[in-house]
Amino acid sequence: MRKIVVYYLGLKDNVRIFIGSIFTAVSVYWSAFLSLWIKDIIKEQPYEIIFLHIIFIVIFLTSIYSLLRYLQKIQNEIELEKEKFRDAMLNSYAVCDRVVIRDMKAIDNFKSDENAYINWLMGSIESIQHIVELLYSFLESKYSQVMTNNEINFEVTFMTMSYNDRQLTIPAFYNKNGRAPHSMSLRTQHYDIYKNTVSAYMYRKTLAHTIIIEDTGDPSNEYSELYEDQKKRIKSTIVFPVLSDKNTLLGTLVAHCDEKSFFKKQDVSQWNRIMEIYSKKIAIEKVKLDIRYDAYKSGLSCNITNPIPF
Fold first, then answer.
1. pLDDT at residue 182 above 70?
2. Is residue 98 scored above 80 in pLDDT?
């Protein structure tokens, strides 16, 4: 029923007006028919039959009224969701504007520190970490207690290929406790631990579209646990590709939470627009880091500290 309402609201205004006119015409003709029908019944049928007809009409009209109320409720919910999404978009733009403001302030400090300016110009993992934290703050403030009475715990990570071993790693992350993902501690022993993750699948298939897993506990989703009971902590996830201007996959921006079906495939277009705001900021920093690494490997002489950040 919800899909029908969503489809109807997505139609052009003139189409919706035409459909509304049809229902109005049907209602008018139905009322006229009902009046004649009732008049004939009163003339020809005994009171018992008339009473049964009255009961039928009351039940029928009540059902129609309830259906209309239900459809109106769905429409109101959809409109409220759209309003919340618009608010979320504005909030995301405002949050990411802080990155620009921070960089503008930082430029003034570089006048007396040439090395700091070079490192800022060539990108830093700290800048990516800051953007990841901004996305986490956005999710926590907007959705932490929206869906249920219980608090929803989020975690945001940026996954990309390590410059050291060319395997997937998580150089930037943030969660409620501020702790590194448990899988990163396991990576010290198994450098290819992320080979069966959704991010690894994106790299293998060179995908450039979002993947949403509504319920990691659903066997049909084939969500691979990296350690025991990981699915108890990660119940719903979205993996968004971070792309360069040439559509090259630079990494993935991943958000997950402990609320089943929080991220829904039907909302993918809305999540795309939100995640894109943050991914563009990350893409700029990642491209600069790639340039930094290439310069270091080629032996170019420049004052770059930490040439291999991860």
1. yes
2. no
